[in-house]
Amino acid sequence: MSAFIDSEASEGEDEEELTAREKKKLKKMKQHRLQDSSEEEEDDEEAMREEMKDLIDDNPIDDEGDDESDSSSDGDGSGDGGRGGARKRSREDDDLDDALEDDDYDLIEENLGVKVKRKQLKRIRRISDSDDEKDRDESADEGRAPSESRDAGEHDERPPPIDGEPDDDEVEDEEDVDDFLVDEDGKPLSKGPKKKKHIFKDAALQEAQDIFGVDFDFDEFDKYAGEEESEPDDEGIEEDDPDASKKRTRKKAAKKKSIYELYEPSELERGHFTDLDNEIRQTDIPERMQLRTVPVTPTELGSEDPELDAEAEWIFRHAFNDKPISAQSKDDDDEFRDKIRQSSSSVSKIKSALDFMRNKHLEVPFIASYKKEYIVPELTSNALWRVYKWDEKWCQLQRRKQNMVRLLERMQAYQGDLVMKDINAALPDGMRVLSSDDVDRVKLADSPEELQDIYMHFRMYYGQDVAAMHEHDMRKKMEEKKAAPKKKRTETRIETNEEGEEVEVEVEVTDDEAEQKDDEDDREFLKYAVRTDAYGLCKRNGLEPLSRRFGLTPEQFSENLRDTYQRHEVEQHPVEPEEMAQDYMTGNLATAQDVLKAAKFMVASQISCEPLVRKCVREMFYSSARISVKPTKKGMKEIDESHYAFTMKYMKDKPVSSLRDDQFLKLHMAEEEKLLVIDLGSKITNYAGQNYVDEAKGLYCRDEFSKTVQKWNELRGECVELALTQMMFPALRKELRTRLLQEAREFVLRQVRRRLFNWLSIAPYTASFPDEDEDEWDCSDGVRVLAVAYETDPSTADYACMVGADGEVTDFLKLQHLMKRKDAWREADRLGKEADLDAIRQLVEAKKPHVIVVGGESREAVTLAEELRALVQTLVAENQFPAIQVEILDNELAKVYANSVKGVSDFRDYPELLRQAVSLARRLQDPLMEFAQLCNAEEECLCLRYHSLQEQLPRDQLLETVQIEFINRTNEVGVDVNLALANPYASPLVQFVCGLGVRKAATLLKTLKQTSQRLANRTELVTDCHLGPKILTNCAGFIKINANSLGDITDRYTDLLDGTRIHLETYEWARKMAVDALEYDDEDGNPAGALEEIIDNPERLKDLDLDAFAEELERQGLGNRSITLYDIRAELNDRYKDLRTPYMSPDPLELFNMLTKETPDTLYKGKLLLSTVTGFTRRKPKPEQMNQDNPVRDTDTGLWQCPFCLKKDFPELSEVWSHFDTNACPGKAIGVRIRLDNGCSGFIQMKNLSDNRVTNPEDRVHPGQTIFCRVVKIDIEKFWVECTCKSSDLADKNKEWRPAKDPFYDVDAENEDRQAAEATRKQKEAQTYLKRVIVHPAFHNIDFKEARRLLATMDQGEAIIRPSSQGSDQLTVSWKVTDDVIQHINVKEMGKENAFSLGQTLVIDNEEFEDLDEILARHVSPVSAHARDLLSYKYYRDTDGGKRPRAEELLRDEKRKNPQKIPYIVSVSKEHPGKFMLSYMPRTRARHEFITLTPEGFRFRQQIFETIPALFRWFKDHFRDPVPQTPRGTTAAARTPFTPGAGFNINNVNAEAVARVAQNLSGNVLHNLSQAAAHTPGYYPNTPYTPSGQTPFMTPYATTPRYQGGGGGTDAPRADGRSTPRMDARSTPRMDARSTPRADGRSTPRMDARSTPRMDARSTPRMDARSTPRMDARSTPRMDARSTPRADGRFTPRADGRSTPRGDGASTPRDGMRTPRDGFPPPGNPASRSRRTPRAGETPLYDE
After folding, report:
1. How many beta carbons lie within 10 A of that of residue 950, not counting itself?
2. Tag placement on the chain: N or C end, fewer CB within 10 Å?
3. 792/802 Cα distance (integer angstroms)
4. Residue 957 scores a pLDDT above 70
5. Distance (Å, rounded) from C-alpha 868 to C-alpha 620?
6. What b/e string do you get for 251-276 counting C-beta neighbours within 10 Å, with b at 16 or more?
7. Exposure b/e, 1425-1463, CB count within 10 A at least 16 = b
8. In 213-345, alpha helices (H)
């Protein structure tokens, strides 16, 4: 907070003119141009180097560096463009990226109440004079080239001109826009040609230039001539030419472009080309120490600083002694923690490590390798990294403490000044004086939580005084400046002389005048907002004295709480609370209760902000908090036994200390996914199990029983409860969640580090062929690898790749048939397989790989590896090849690399599988180097799968963990820099060398590449690579130089020790040991020769007494270096020995996990999974079994059955015996073969197939079927599992198979939720209707909502028949009037046989129908046709479902257009389905009447009209007649629940076709539908109404003539695959070959006029007593009582929108989803309607 306050304590003020500083810079630049030419050339070159260096310098500097940059400009001649100025601009440019507009600043100032310093954008101003300034600066520009005049002022800045004031450079900027467009550094984006000044001193030449336009200087020819050469030639420039070097330099500068012009800032940052990156490169501190969130800083007093002791003690206590809140599994880290806890020297060794890190800037790998005497055995490498991380936390804590101390000291000084104003006056009311104890408490804060508590305490008591404190400090500062003695000094100023010219003069000024601007800034100090929170309001209302009457101060209560007894007695006041509160009532607090409520809030706030109280409550909260978990509705559905939160789905009062490992992280994930609800710390108990809040209340009450005391005790208890439950517990819950989440993530990070360690700690593959003498089988320089990568899809081409020992690809093969089976059914596959294997054999013979590796993609890798081993054995036997090993390697890294940016850029032309093969081979050669390929700017190393929960980790923490492991392993192995130079493939490892980083490593390699030389010795790291001493100390021992690879280097010194881990500082000790081991004299001994000899004979080192040597070194003051001496001897025995684990072939468990991609957490005994049945396993009968078991004859069929295979289709007994003799019997089934998704094969025994006895497994399952099963046994070697699929095992009611649930699992809550869910399900399933067994394509057992949903997707006029909620003797017909309007017609059933069947007579409004088809044909179809007529009527308007205001609005619009006309419209009524609202406006008021749709026509004013024209003709003649009765729509049928299905639409019946068909067909034209059908058929397309066999001669209902179509059509398909025969009215139907197939394999014949019907049992109508014809206008002939095929010759519209031919010869076209209408034009176009001649008996209908 104090840092923020200090940073906002001053504000800059814009100037309208050039400041004195800018004028000073201008003068210095002008003086600089007049210097000597030789000095000018040197300065220009130096300035260019500085400028090039500063192109990428964005590092911010301190404010006080501005003056230094001004003063330095005199020396380097760079003016404002010097280094300091560039850094300042870079710092400002960073701010420009996030610059705010004025409106944003105004909003910030309004909300914060402070004045924020605003950044003013400036642009570059050219100093070159314009035409109107020519005379004024002519004297200053004499002898200067125009290009100099322009460039000299490139870095001059000025504020923008005031609004309305003309800009001096306005004209010039309009002419040269390039100077106005500047980049983020303020530099012009383009430097075009500038307007030149007079360049000739001679008046005649100048006049010639003005007249003839000769605008060049002859001296510039030298500049142009230099462009033709790659490098300028200085010999052609005369020494006495002062402008020669400048001209050459300016020419170069004109070509130079800023790096910010060429690249985006994000690209520069990604490529590490910013100024900050440049500073990191140049600073002699390890890069990772500079990039740490809190950079590593040395202590003030070095190694003897007491801060190191305090920090070491703090780290020991918190990093190694503090136990985590949750229970974490022990690993390797816990072992060294135990050693550290038990050792008495741990603190001193932590201090030594901190000293190395902070004061000597030594990184962890260096300390772990070369400072072992100071850290072992307590501190390992992982412990040092822990110390390094906690050092960052310590530094951050100390910085915050220092800021807090400064804030307290300022407040303390402010209070002192207030008191000293009137020393005799009493302290202001409510002032709490800060003491030294408060400052000491900050210094003693031991954790960030404690420091936060202190800050909350300060903010509550002193927050409202902070603004006044800052104002006081600013005034005090101003007074000190005024009181300071005034000093005179000389200052250069630019003034205007009498002639109007600006000249520079030196004047003497005082400090007040020089710092006048600073004083003006100080006067307008920032105003800080005053606290207006609830506590401040209570304090303003004068309730603080009342809060002190509660008997204990917060400090006293905190001590009582800490000691758990009443250390301080509660003081009791004799006055009751209500009576005392009356003295504090104000306008805001009008009652005593309000006063007491506010006072309780103040006391509770004071208690909750007391640091000691918070510390005590925090400790108790952390130790006794419990967690409870319940699933949400979503979680109850999604969390099954395969879910990660299954074992914790229900938990009750589980102590947080019993949470293990990553359990809380999983709970947090489930909570984020809205699956679980976590209750944390709702009940806090003390160590005795009592409620902690009640215990705290007891420490804040007085033990008396008077009424007054009891009232005060009640208030005190409420204060404590409010402070704990409402103020502290919520914050502590948040803290505890953060801590638990952090511990769980740390566990995952440890698992990530362990997994990466297992990958990186594998040594390169080594192979030995002792029987081979040829050099090509020598593996000393590496192994050649043949890698094979494949896909499980046999149709995908596979690849084999040959990689040399240097990691380069030498050859590859494309294998199209490699994964085919050798015994494939297709001959082409077999031949292709043989060809691919032969190609691999030829490649092996030609390239001679040392090892073959196969990618572990799936289980097929085992088969492929066996085939390759067989191939190698063939070569061994035939060609005496050495036995090449075939390995299977995990392909996870290969897949990531193949799809990475690095892999694609390395092998852009290779397919993905081939890149996988390359990665497989390289990983086998060197795993560390191959994994390092993913450590690039894209951070693709995070794409690897380290842990299943790694996505829940912060990206920076995961990346840091991965990088630390790479650092450890890389420095353990060492890096050959020369190899990295020669092969870019090895360069990614250099960044992990101790002391280096991405930037420093790139600089090192770049420097060596530029010099085109290899590193001959480690001293060249200083001489050639210019490494600083700290970087050299860190990295020297880990950079190895292979002397054998430097055989061609003879002119430089090489040292054998450079190829060892021995550090530069101990070279002399190693040489001394070699000389002593060989017993050479000191005078005659040759250390170099001794080293060569001792390396050849390292056993001579065993005789050395290293302990005596160590004692001698210690006497010389070099410290205890005994461990270092032993390490030197070990290194001389084996130089840079690879300490990694040798490669070993994967064991069966590793191979199983690798190929199946399973882990013990994903595949285990009892796992419930899906499997696919692949076949049955049978056991052939033995001969004795055949003799014992006799065939069995089925008495029903008379066929014989085999007793083994249970085949029962043998007509004769002899055939069974022949079945045995020919060995055709497959045997008795013993189980089912299955296959899992992971590639494993499985088996289910017959006894585990079902809980019931199963003799034939084919009765239960069939091949290809997917079934659930549980794993019973796992055979990892055979990739085989045994499973069970019994219902009892799948349900697992005995909890034998499912994962074990948490010990605190709340079974009762789970049972309650399960019972509630079951009750809800039953209630939901409880239907208000009875499911009916009615076989009809339009009938569906669904409810009202489902019917409405289905009809929404159907056409207008289609219908659904469904059960009614009013009883089992009723049905409901729901038909679609239009969108969102559905009419429900109630149908009563008469003559029902049972509750499920259809009644023999159906009644709608006292009108009887015989079946559902008749209802659709005689009632629904005519009504829907009438509805279509009205919907297409020209005056139909949409009024949002018959809303009268909408209709009146439309009528008024029409009336307004034509007042003489009586407008009228028709609209559908949603309130009264089946009715249309007729709205008209005779005069000014609209009238609304209803038109009811009936099968006979349109009912209006109790009259029936058959056609719309007749209706409206009558309406126009009688609209003035009184309305007899406003028709009220009948109530729609009650909503009946129902299940999904499709709708049904019906057209009118063709009477002629029905009559003819009924006369020629028998009663059995279709089979009777089964009444025992247990299900409702699927969707049937709209089927025409068909006469039944009982009434074949009935004349169908006469329909509206306009809807009678014609033409013989095709059959109407039905949903079950069958088709309904259609009868053409003009011919005798017959059965032809064009019958439509049915779902049951049969076909329904089609009927047309070209054939004669067959008279068989299927198509001949039955004329018996059950089919008595009815001859009235209402009935339609039926074939029988149970089937209702339609045969009227007309067809219902098809669902696909195409036209369906109708029986009368007309074709009904469909347009989209609209119902077809014969002869009707589209709505809105009545003039285009066609007319047709009516047939006999029809009434012609004419449109209006």
Report:
1. 20
2. C
3. 22
4. yes
5. 66
6. bebeeeebebeeeeeeebeeebbbbb
7. bbbbbbbbbebbbbbebbbeebbbebbeebbeeeeeeeb
8. 221-225, 244-255, 259-262, 265-270, 275-282, 287-291, 306-315, 332-342
The string of DSSP codes covering 581-595 is HGGG--SS--SHHHH
1654 pLDDT more than 80: no
Query: Which strand ranges, in their side-by-side order, compose the sheet holding 1475-1480?
Result: 1464-1468, 1475-1480, 1487-1494, 1497-1500, 1503-1505
The answer, yes or no, to whether residue 1355 has pLDDT greater than 80, is yes
Residues linked to residue 1490 through DSSP beta bridges, in sequence order:
1477
Angle of helix 37-53 relative to helix 244-255, nearest 10 degrees, comes to 20
Residue 1461 per-residue DSSP state? S
pLDDT band at 488 (very low <50, low <70, confident <90, very high): low
Q: What confidence tens digit (pLDDT) does each residue in 985-1038 have?
A: 999 999 999 999 999 999 999 988 888 778 888 888 888 888 999 999 999 999
Which residues face 502 on adjacent strands? 496
Q: What is the DSSP string of 842-874?
A: HHHHHH--SEEEEE-SSTHHHHHHHHHHHHHHH
Q: Which of 1353, 1348, 1400, 1349 is nearest to 1372 (CA)?
A: 1348
With H, G, I as helix, E, B as strand and everything else as coil, classify residue 1324. Answer: helix
What burial letters (b/e) apply to 1605-1629, b meaning 16+ CB within 10 Å?
A: bbbbbebbbbeebbbbbbbbbbbbb
- Residues 1544, 1576: Cα–Cα separation, whole Å: 14
Q: Which residues of 457-471 are buried (b: 16+ CB within 10 A; e: fewer)?
A: bbbbbbbbbbbebbe
Mean pLDDT, range 1448-1475, rounded to an integer: 90
Dihedral over alpha carbons 1651, 1656, 1662, 1663 (to 10 degrees): 80
Per-residue model confidence as pLDDT tens digits over 810-851: 999 999 988 888 887 888 888 998 999 999 999 998 888 999
Listed residue (56, 40, 54) closest to 84, CA to CA: 54
Average confidence (pLDDT) over 1158-1178: 90
pLDDT band at 1679; cut points 50, 70, 90: very low
d(CA 990, CA 139): 59
Gap between the Cα atoms of 1497 and 1414, Å rounded: 18
Q: Contact 297/358 with Cβ under 8 angstroms?
A: yes
DSSP annotation of 1608 reads -
- Integer-rounded Cα radius of gyration of the chain: 49
CA distances to 141, 259, 494, 1493 from 497, in Å: 18, 43, 10, 105
Confidence class for position 1255, pLDDT limits 50, 70, 90: confident
Beta bridge partners of 503: 495
Q: Is the pLDDT of residue 54 over 70?
A: no
Strand (E) positions, 1303-1413? 1359-1363, 1370-1378, 1381-1390, 1401-1404, 1407-1409
pLDDT band of residue 1079 (cuts 50, 70, 90) is confident
Q: How far apart are CA 155 and CA 167, in angstroms?
A: 18
Peptide bond between residue 377 and the one before it cis (omega within 30 degrees of 0) = yes
Query: Average per-residue pLDDT in the chain?
Result: 75
Do the bridges between strand 809-815 and strand 798-803 make them parallel or antiparallel, or are there none, so unpaired? antiparallel
C-alpha–C-alpha distance, residues 1015 and 1036, integer Å:
12
Q: Is there a contact between 494 and 140 (Cβ–Cβ < 8 Å)?
A: no
The label of the residue with tokens 């074949």 reads: 1592
Q: Flag the least confident range among 610-624, 675-689, 871-885, 1554-1568.
A: 1554-1568
CA atoms within 13 A on the CB side of 723: 30
Residue 114 has pLDDT above 70, yes or no: no
The DSSP H or E segment spanning 404 is helix 381-421
Number of helical (H) and strand (E) elements in the chain, helices listed first: 62, 39
Distance in angstroms (rounded) separating the CA atoms of residues 1656 and 1640: 20
How many CB atoms lie under 10 A from the CB of residue 1535? 17
